[in-house]
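### Sample
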Amino acid sequence: MIDSITTLYTAMEQSKQQTEVSTAVLAKSIDTVEQAGENLQGLIQTAGAAPSQAITDPLSGQHINITA
């Protein structure tokens, strides 16, 4: 009985740690994407693009409104 409770507790703690690590990785990924977006915005502004101009992403072919 005690062994099964110990095993359950250990599994719960491991799950908690995995959740914390996953949350930290997600937060870092979001920060990285945010920084990349800010870098792209800076490049667009440096290139002198008009604020209402839409550009086309060369990789995906999608039109991107740079004012969004």
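The longest strand covers residues 54-56. This sample (Motility protein) is used throughout the tutorial notebook.
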